[in-house]
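User:
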Amino acid sequence: MNLYNYEDIRAVHLEITEKCQASCPMCDRNIKGGADNPNLGGKKGLHELTVADVQKILPPEFVKQLDRLYMCGNFGDPIVANDTLEVFKYLREQNSNMWLNMNTNAGAKKEDWWRELAKALGDKGHVTFSFDGLADTNHLYRQGVNWDIAWRNALAFIGAGGRAHWDFLIFAHNEHQVEEAEALAKETGFAKFIPKKTGRFFSTMKKTGKEDHQAVNRKGEAQQLLQKPKEVKYQNNATKDIIKLEEKHGSLEKYFDNVKIKCKVAAEKSMYLSAEGLILPCCWVAGSMYKFWQKPGENQVWELLQQSGGKEVFDAKTHGVKAVLGNEYFTGRLVDSWDKANTHVGKPMVCAQKCGEEFDAFKAQFEKTT
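Assistant: Predicted structure:
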């Protein structure tokens, strides 16, 4: 059974770069905020797509069929890439109706760049600013981000007519500022304020919940101890329900073995394009390729890719989107793997974790904080 066909695609999740000036402790591009993930990048450094790459991979006729393209990803921040603005301008020229947006820490580029971005996105787009606190707390998670620069850039974007959303990841160290930040967002012209009940207090490596996460800096020195919010209304309900799942299924691992998978991106007709130029279903599958604690090639995601011809056949810079989506991985192998007896014989753990019907820490991040 096909995941989807080329002509079905309506959304693209584009990770334009693996580079970032920040070092967030729960981001896979580094190890707890310290050393870079040793599995990222090629021989010439961290991967990044140019505007020429994007024009080749996403030609005008394909862009015209899209309803949305957004830049977020696993490792990089779009503002660090050289050609982000030019890519958005190209996309807008080809499709005046599609929605364009990106997520960013906002701590780079000059104000004029942000004003130009506002013009390029127009009234059919937005920027999600990831500000996890205020001037005295944002840097405790967004390590390396200068608040004054980030805030200046957000105001420049809004002042130029840009539609801005504010994502606020809630931790114990900033939960006292949620209401103050929401009031500031309204006062300064943000279109949305999104208090996020972070789902990152779940270890994909250990497959269990966790209470805290020790941040370190680039020198490996201990920094903020990241902890769950104390107030129940700010806690992620999915991670709180782990005990119920264990009681129902015998263990969390057995839940992942048994759960029915309902693929989010299949429903959305969305595909993921990595900074390496690979077409994959989603950022979660792509991110599982390069976890810092595993050597590339040593997990289920890689097994399925290798069974389907190897990583090279997913390279859209070489083969194009249509050819990649015509690969047996998309036309049957991935969907078939969801019906495997358990995760030990080929049922993808990443799919069970992210798209299993009874546990969705990602969706639970956006539940109302009441």
